Amino acid sequence: MKSDGGHSRLTPWVIVTLYVCAGMMWLGAQASVLDYFAVSLNRQSLRWQIGLFLVWLLVTALVALWFMQRKRQADQRSRETAQELELIVRYAPAGMARVHLGGGKIAWANAKLAGWLGCSVESLRGQDFRVLVPADDKEEIALQLERLLDGSTNYYQALRSCVNAATGKVTPVLCTTSRVASSGVGGPVALVCVLQDLSEMVNARNAMVRSETMLRMALEGSGNGVWEWDALALRLNFSSGMGALLKYQGQDLAADFDFYQRLHPEDAAAARLQVDQALEQGSMLVLTARLLCFDGMYRWFRARGQAHKDADGRLLRISGLLSDQTASREADERRRLASTVVENTIEGVVVTDAYSRILSVNRSFTRLLGFSEEEMLGQTPRMFKSGRHDKAFYDAMWARMRSHGHWQGEIWNRRKSGEVFPERMSLSAVKDANDHVTHYVCMFTDISAEKAREQQLEFLAHRDVLTGLPNRSQFSLMLGNALADSQLTGAGMGVILFNIDRFKDVNDSYGHSIGDEVLRHVSHQMQAALRCGDIIGRLAGDELCVVANSLPSRQAAIEVTERLMAAAGKPWTTPDGLSVVVSVSAGICLYPEHAQTAEDLLQGAHAAVYGAKSRGSNAWCFFHEDMTQAARERLELEARLRRALDQGHMRLYYQPQIDLQTGRLMGAEALLRWLDPEEGLISPARFIPVAESSGVIGPLGLWVLGEACRQGQQWRTAGLPDLTIAVNVSLHQFLLTDLVGATNQVLAESCFPAEFLELEITESALAEKPEDALAVLTRLRELGLRLAIDDFGTGYSSLAHLKRFPLDLLKIDQGFIRDIPHSADDMTISSSVIALGHAMGLKVLAEGVETREQLAFLQEKGCDYFQGYLCSRPVPAEDFTRLLEKARDGLPLVDIAVAAEPVVI
To answer: What angle do CA 146, 152, 154 make, to 5 degrees?
Structure first.
């Protein structure tokens, strides 16, 4: 028999007890044998007893021998077992210890455990195992120990740490604890702890964790995700980084991701074909396509995968990486665009290494420099030096490069042909991560044309393009310098302004190109006739001005002026042999007699030239103060006129227009009046010329048109008779403003019917630009209003043009009516105009009718209408309303049948 530990249970006391028991059993058996054979207690029985005893001895000897043999075998096995256990304990890679249950004292421990704890085996006896080998989870160990003691389990395992007392090194171990019972006593008396070194396992696990972490970080950092297509399960599996790549926020990407549904429509067909080929052939899959991410955006991805098959060639799975290519494709696109821009830009671009050796150039560089790329590669930009810059220039340039990494400026270089040209250059240094220069990039633009333009602009800024003379700004500067010299020396000087007479007629007659040639000829002739030191310049279209220095007297100024006028009057002959002769008028302003400043000298010369023109052509005139005073009055009147228009001081007066057949009111002419708060009524003859010369006539005419239509509509609303309201249109307003648009807007705003509005245009306006006038009149007629030609007979219009105009009425100027019946010429002209108007299908109205004789004459000649003092002066709207009320009652304003006396109204 063996114990649980493998040791024999046959102790000496057991053997003695067994032997006694066997002897007793033998004696009992002996008596039974003797009784069975009926042997009596005699000699014969003695022999039986001796025989039986011998048998007993033999049997017991044999039994003892058998027991001794078993004992020797058990002892041998016990020694072998003990030796094995000793060897195991001594040389096993695990630490072992026997620990008393009560206080956790170590009964014995092996050398391995002592080595981990950094002490000897002998020193471990009696020490607290729980302190030397602390547990990671003490509560769990207490629970497991309780289960071990109550027999619920035979052992338990826990993680502990062996701390080396000498080095402090911590060895993680797995401690397997079991109970040990002494012979003959039930229940544990000690614990046996076997400790396995987990360092390699922990290190391997940590290494694996680190490897997995590094792999995950590498995948996530590289923008890649791992995917796998399980061909057996027909399912996609993804790594954790795939969700971030696809912008997925859910819980099951594999279930929510449909590859084919998320392909971009433009990439779907090609992608399906590649996937099908990879699945069919089991080949490498390399696919680039756009996928719809879960944030609703399409992004470029590249999928690379390898097929895996079993031994039978059946596809098991395809696994690989998915990488976001959006940024790289965008970067490639930007690089491609940048390369295309650099290659196709008009600017020359060259890239060199850190030693200024040329690495690449674009097409513009070769075009601008004339060298081929092969000729420049490996060379330095010194091959383009022009020789115009000294060493200091280049030293400063490279000093700037070293300090700022950039230089920009203008530089002269040389082409292959040897031509030196200017360029605007930008040079930049390219540095690596260590701030070391690796390349230089140079961009330049040929600014030859720009330099030429600058020179041209410089010329144009100071010179007149047509004549080459100093322009107004340059002439003013030169005049200021000449005046300063005269003030220093005390010498007299003069400013002489020349204006070409009737230069507009030259342009209109011969064309502007001939006019330019004439102006150039006059300027050259006058420049050639200048005295030494005199200055000439062109101030405006036909104005040439001369600064005559050192004029001792007025007579000297006259001599200079007349000599220049004679030079200007020399004829100019066209290439066709046509001779063109012009004359000039001159205004003279002297320093210090007339003015003290350059500005006053020019202003005085301007005023004087107007005085010369008033005397006729080819005349000169000295400046005097009255000229300036008149100009100032015109400027003051212009300012007052603008204020009057803004402040509502303008008024409209209305003069009746009478039908000569019935004497009834048929219309009214609206006449402008200026009611000044200080002066009262100001005559139109005084302010209309100022309005036309200053440009105020435009807004003023628009106000008149609007006010007339507004008043006419007011009369119509009041139930008064309809009548035609005539409004005068000036030459400036007719040709230089949008008369059609303004009229259309006024009619729309006032609601005044267009058929009751009549616009009166002077004959001179129609003669100025007949084609333009025809276009404007046609558009006005399309609006439905009436058109009249005012002051007919005073202009110089062509009847051929006149008959083309869509007119309704001719108005005979009052200058032809005033002397009837005393002037036969006026009567003839008036009669002819009436006949001409009727012949052209027009109505005729006579202005300025003041006598019965004039009325009778006009009636006799068949004139249709008249207006004048015979009927009424121009009156305000309030007074004209009473005339309309009389007309509404059917009463004529003029008694046509009575010719002896005018009718008093």
So the answer is: 90
Reading the block at residue 142, the tokens are 């207490």
**How far is 362 from 349, CA to CA, in rounded Å?**
6
Query: Per-residue pLDDT tens for 532-548?
Result: 989 999 988 889 999 99
Contacts of residue 690, defined as CB under 8 A and 6 or more positions apart, other chains included, come to 634, 637, 638, 641, 696
pLDDT of residue 726: 92
Name residue 204's amino acid: A
Instruction: Give the CA distances from residue 445 to residues 3, 450, 452, 846, in Å, rounded to whole numbers and listed in that order.
Output: 107, 10, 14, 73
Task: Give the residue-averaged pLDDT of 453-475.
Answer: 83
Amino acid type, 515: G
Q: Where are the beta strands (DSSP E) in 474-534?
A: 493-500
Crossing angle of the two packed helices 625-647 and 697-717, in degrees rounded to 10: 40
Separation of CA 61 from chain center:
121
Confidence band for 225, pLDDT divided at 50, 70 and 90: confident
- Measured in residues, the chain has a length of 905
| Helix/strand/coil for 893 | coil
The answer, yes or no, to whether residue 88 has pLDDT greater than 90, is no
Q: Which of 48-52, 371-375, 477-481 has the highest mean pLDDT?
A: 477-481
CA gap 411, 444 in Å, rounded = 9
Q: What distance in Å separates the CA atoms of residue 541 and residue 471, rounded to the nearest whole number?
A: 11
CA distance readout (Å), 474 to 134, 407, 459, 803: 105, 37, 10, 50
Tell me: the pLDDT tens digits for 834-869? 888 888 888 999 988 988 898 889 988 899 999 988
- Candidates 270, 267, 243; CA nearest to 255 is 243
Q: Are 493 and 550 in contact (CB under 8 A)?
A: yes
For residue 887, pLDDT over 80 is answered with yes
Contacts for 202 with CB less than 8 Å, ≥ 6 apart: 172
Contacts (Cβ under 8 Å, ≥6 apart) of 39:
45, 48
Kindly write down the DSSP assignment for every residue of 4-56, as one continuous string: TTS-B---HHHHHHHHHHHHHHHHHHHHHHHHHHT--SSHHHHHHHHHHHHHH
Q: Are strands 224-230 and 285-292 parallel, antiparallel or unpaired?
A: unpaired
Residue 695: alpha-carbon gap to chain centroid: 42
Q: Measure the CA–CA gap between 892 and 87, rounded to whole angstroms.
A: 157
Summary count for the chain: helices (H), strands (E): 31, 32
Q: How far apart are CA 471 and CA 656, in angstroms?
A: 54
Radius of gyration over every alpha carbon of the chain, rounded to an integer in angstroms: 65
Q: Identify the three-state secondary structure at position 127.
A: coil
CA distance 419 to 406: 27
Write down the pLDDT at residue 712.
Answer: 92
